[in-house]
Amino acid sequence: MSSTSTTAPVATPLVLPVSRTSFLMVGTTLLALAAYYFIGVDQGAWSVFGNDTHIHEFVHDARHFLGFPCH
Amino acid sequence: MVGKLILRGTLAGVVGGILAFVFARVLAESPIQAAIDYESGRDAAQEALDQAAGIAASAHEHEIFSRTIQANIGIGVGIVAFGAAMGALMAVAYVYCIGRTGAVRPRTLALLVAGGAFLGLYLVPFLKYPANPPAIGHEDTIADRSTLYLVMVAVSVAFLVAAAWLGQRLKPRFGNWNATLLAAAAFIVAIGIVMLLLPSFGHLPANVEEYGRHATETPLPLTDSQGKIVFPGFPADTLFSFRLYSIGAQLVLWTTIALIFAPAAEKLLTGGNGRPADAATPVGA
Lengths: 71, 285
Description:
The structure holds two protein chains of two kinds. Chain A is mainly α. Chain A has three helices and no strands. By secondary structure, chain B is mainly α. Chain B has helices at residues 2-52, 67-97, 106-128, 142-197, 205-211, 236-269; strands spanning 222-223, 229-231. In chain B, helix 1 packs antiparallel against helix 2 (67-97), helix 3 packs across helix 4 (142-197) and helix 3 (106-128) packs antiparallel against helix 6 (236-269). The interface between A and B is large, with 49 and 73 residues.
C-alpha cells in the first residue's frame, strides 16, 4: 500500500498514511464488526433474518463460551 | 503495507481461533454438557411441579442442530471466525497506533495492542458480566443483557483508547513510567464507576418481578409449593470451570494473535531485516 517501510531509524517513527488506506481500514473494521455481531449477538436480542435461529443455534456453544449473553 | 499487516493479523487470528477451539473442545464441552443436562433435569422437574399444580406443560423447543454438531462444528466455526475478526480488528488498531503511541518497538507495540484488545473486548466486560453456560440466562431479558454487555464492551474499549491518549499527554510532564501508571489508574477508576452504575443482570426489572432481587440470573434451587427443594440450584463447580475455561480460551486466542503478529509486523515495518530498534529507546505505552 505505501512505500514508507524502510525509513525507520528509531523504533516506530513512521506513521502509516491512514488517509490513503482508510478505505481498507474502515472496510476491515466493518467486516470484523459484522462477524462479531453475527457470532455473538444476532438472532438473540435482535435478528437480521427475522425469526430464524439457524446462526444462533449453530454457533450456540461458541457464543456462550466467548462470553456473550445467550437466551 | 496496511493490507499486509491486516492480512497477517487476520491469519494470526485464524490460528489463534483454531488453538482456542482445540482448548474449548477438550476442556469446555464437559461443563457445557453438564449445564445442558442440568437445564433438562430442571425443566423436567418444573414440568412435574406444573402438572401437579394443574398447569399445562409448555411446548418443547425443537432442535435445529444436534448437540454433536453444536459441540464439534458450530463451536469451531464460531471461535475461528471470531478469531479471524479479532485478529483483523487488532491489526487495524495496530496500524493506527504506529507512530502515535510513543517510541515503542514494533514487536512490543503488537503485544501491547493485542493485550489491550483482550482487556477491552473481553476481560474487562467479563468482570461485570461474566460468561454464562447454557441454563443461565432468562429468555425475557436477552435484549437487555445483550445491550448491557455491548455497552460494557464499547465503554471498555473507548476508555482504553482514552487512557492510551491520556498517557501520551502526561508523558512530557511525568515521564513514561509515571504517565503509564497514571493513565492506568484513571482507566481503573473510570471503568469502576461505569461498573457500579450499570445494573447487575439479576436486578433487571423483569427478573426482580419474577424471581425477586438477586445479583445474577444463575438458577436457584427449585422449590415446590411448600418451599421444599425439589431440584438443586445450578452447580457452582460447573459454573466456575466454565468461566475459567472461557478466560483460558480467550487467553489462548489473544496470546497466539500477539505472538504470531508481533514478529510478522516487526519484519514488515523494519524492512525485513528484523533490525532491532534503538537500544536507548524507552519502552512503554
